[in-house]
Amino acid sequence: MVSVQSEQVREDLSVPSSVKIVIAGGFGVGKTTMVGAVSEITPLRTEELLTEAGEEIDDLAGVEGKNTTTVALDFGRITISSELVLYLFGTPGQDRFWFMWDELAVGSIGAVVLVDTRRLEAGFGAIDFFERRRIPFIVAVNCFEGSHSYTAQEMRVALDVSDNVPLVLCDARDRESCKKVLVSVIEHAMNRLDVMA
Amino acid sequence: MSQHSGDWWYDEAAGPMVRPYAMVSGRTRPKPAGEDLTLTTQVRALRTNSEQGTLSVEHLEIIKLCRKPLSVAEVAAYLHAPLVVVKVLLSDLIQRGDVITRDPSRTAVPVDMNLLQKVLDGVRAI
Lengths: 197, 126
What we know:
Keywords (chain A): GTP-binding, Hydrolase, Nucleotide-binding, Receptor
Protein name (chain A): Signal recognition particle receptor subunit beta, a GTPase
InterPro entries (chain A): Gliding_Motility_GTPase, Gpn, P-loop_NTPase
Oligomer: heterodimer
Family (chain A): Belongs to the GPN-loop GTPase family.
Number of strands of chain A: 7
Order of helices and strands of chain A: EHEEEHEHEHEH
GO molecular function, one term (chain A): GTP binding
Structural class of chain B: mainly alpha
Order of helices and strands of chain B: HEHEHHEHH
């Protein structure tokens, strides 16, 4: 990449650095709702074009004969300062896009596995993913109105997450509630760092 | 967002492929100058006096968007173009010196306590 050359500009040339938190979970669990609740911008959607085999297209020759598909990523933004921006990326909900999770997970400071009590099993895959990659994550239970209320401990048992993984209850539509979720995951990442040091 | 001026690229009938890839002459790999671009790499346009006549409408649109620093993902979203296409376009601009990214050696921010504390304070403050 071209670095800044002094003669080019006399304006402020600072380019911020960025960090990201991944919001993972099954289809329809409220990931984009959560992103939207805390993002300073309406969640944006970006798309990547893929072959059915799940690989990035690297050659257009013969592409018309392949089944192509797009994978959509919804994300939001929180400007921390002029030097630091936090991005919140929702994972694609469909299982066949698992491989995209790797690109999202690389360099993330932590992850939230969002689950809903009606379909707890939809969170298993995500929990497994972050456990295996040793990425700090917490479980956030999206408590929809009218959904059965269980205790956090019951949920923990049902999801089979260890005691050192924080589990919080939240409302993905509520800004303050989602802020608490983010605070939890960042604090968890700090604790993990502390333990490793 | 969907009403953004980049919408003319998207053709419901033709699908999202034909025209975006025409925009980059069928290229799907960024030039070396842009091969380190990730979703969250911040890009920023410089006010250069470079010859813009050779740039496409899309290149110019990116320069306009990036007057303030933006991530690659944001540029792609605002342009309504696939990420790979935007990376190719950005690599052209980086090579020309019209756009800069954060120095690659500093792109991978080390996740340390100091950084996490800043993020924590920032989130608490919103």
